[in-house]
Amino acid sequence: MSNENYTYQTKSPGTVFIISAIFVLGFVLWGFVKPDQLAATANTALDFTIETFGWFYMLVAAFFVSFIFFLAFSPFGKLRLGKPEDRPEYSFYAWLGMLFSAGIGVGFVFWGVAEPVLYYVDTPLGQDVENPAEAAQLGLDYGIFHWAFHPWAIFSLVALALGYVQFRKDQPALISSAFYPLFGNKVRGKLGQGIDVLAVLATSTGVATTFGLSAMQISGGLSYLTGLPNNAFTQLTIIAIVAVLFMFSAASGLNKGIRYLSVINLTVAALLLIFVIVLGPTIYLLESVTTSLGAYISNFVPMSLTMTPFSDSEWIGANTIFYWAWHISWAPFMGMFIARISRGRTIRGFIGGVLLVPALLAVIWFSVFGGSALHLEMNGIASIADIVNDTVELALFATLQEFPLAGITNGLAVLLILIFFITSADSASYTLGAMTSRGSLNPPLFAKITWGVLIAGTAAVLLLSNGLEGLQTASIVAALPFSIIMSVMVISMIKMFTQDRNKEKQKAREHQKMVMKEEILDELEEEIDDFSRDSLDSEEDSPSSNTKKDK
């Protein structure tokens, strides 16, 4: 179905906009004036959260994955994100591109090389390995594990709940709307506003840190390639340029700006991936993809539920649990945006696109780029581990530098990160605009631009004051209450899906009864007609009728 067939209402910003903006400005001022104090406070809170509730993060993340798979294979999978007659608003390729460009694609590009190499040096769970090959495979396994099913299941859960209540139940595009089946109109009061403010804070702080990280990676890449100084001035210039480009994209609307840039980005990423496979150690990389896929499938359950209660290893808290908290802190943003672009898809089709495809791409991307870096490191071709430990944002560029046509591929990598940067800014400003404009699916340009400038300003100020890490840590601490909110969301979804599934079954039964009645009536009419014809024929053939004819 063409997207022109769907129209969305524009609403002015509401109370959540004012409250959230004040809180964000407060965090920015804290990070600028006393960055060390913010970082210390946030780190203390994060350490307490991970040490005390690490087990909860592991269990709840595994539960979210299980629940999403249950929905895919259950009868609920036939339900549609929208009215029964709705059909997908975007083509599959454009939709997939928009999924990645919302922000998580930056994670693939940034950590695709760095994470497997980091785990090669610092082996997961402090395990003793017999040889470098075993350490390399462990590094790949855990890199893939952190970016495959778990993050996308977390995003899928929020997106499914929001997409369903928006397009099926005609509720506003707010996180609080997901609880309408449980609390009714109470979600339009203080309870709902509290949930929405928490979601906006988690989103805005998380996106601001991504702005900063992206600026650092682009600055590092340009410095590595051209000799430009990799300093705060270069990073601030990049943020300013991206802010201007993002404004053009935001002004052109979702169906043009993000949509077109997302298709370009997915194509560039695919070209870079194919290039590395073809011109790199091809057989080695293909074997790496195959082995990593097998290891991920066979070790998924143990890895999902493994902790270290009998040892002093802090690895699981500093890595796996940290990532689960980070992904949960991103769930409001990613869930809201994915819901907006997924109208008309069935739950089963949605899960296939949002969970299975990205997970498979994570296996391929990390195996190819991480595998290439490990190949260079283990064979003494390049000291990728030293570069990752020293300047993590240069990991991708240092790896591509060892391949043919390094200038072209590194240029493509910078372009890829730049477009990811623009589209993530655009999609974040759209999402925040919707969340603070009373759930409008077509938020006013003023709201989008305001949030874009606020987030860019936050990243810039915190880069100058070295307060970026503190803000990122603070946003991850917010994941704990939101993980509880998501758990309640599951109950709301089950209630909502069960009611609508029962309604559909009742309609199907009523339709079947109507069909059966019509068939019975048709058969009766045919029998009456046959009986009437037989009666007429018998009358015509009777002796009395023949006598009358003779007369």
Could you characterize what this model shows?
- With 551 residues, the chain is mainly α.
- It has helices spanning 15-33, 35-73, 92-101, 104-121, 132-145, 149-167, 180-183, 190-226, 232-252, 254-279, 282-304, 315-340, 347-378, 384-390, 395-400, 406-435, 445-465, 468-477, 479-541, 543-550.
- α2 packs across α6 (149-167) and α6 runs antiparallel to α13.
- The model has no long low-confidence stretch (mean pLDDT 83).
Biggest pleated-sheet summary: none
CATH architecture type: Up-down Bundle
Domain module tally: 1
Strand content: under 5%
CATH topology: the name is Amino acid/polyamine transporter I
SS-derived structural category:
mainly alpha
- Write down the secondary-structure element order: HHHHHHHHHHHHHHHHHHHH
> What's the CATH first level?
Mainly Alpha
InterPro entries: BCCT_transptr
Family: Belongs to the BCCT transporter (TC 2.A.15) family.
Main location: membrane
Protein name: BCCT family transporter
Could you write a compact summary of the structure shown?
It is a multi-pass membrane protein. The chain is an all-alpha fold and 551 residues long. The chain has helices spanning 15-33, 35-73, 92-101, 104-121, 132-145, 149-167, 180-183, 190-226, 232-252, 254-279, 282-304, 315-340, 347-378, 384-390, 395-400, 406-435, 445-465, 468-477, 479-541, 543-550.
How are the elements arranged and paired?
Elements: H1 15-33, H2 35-73, H3 92-101, H4 104-121, H5 132-145, H6 149-167, H7 180-183, H8 190-226, H9 232-252, H10 254-279, H11 282-304, H12 315-340, H13 347-378, H14 384-390, H15 395-400, H16 406-435, H17 445-465, H18 468-477, H19 479-541, H20 543-550
InterPro entries: BCCT_transptr
Subcellular location: Cell membrane
GO cellular component, one term: plasma membrane
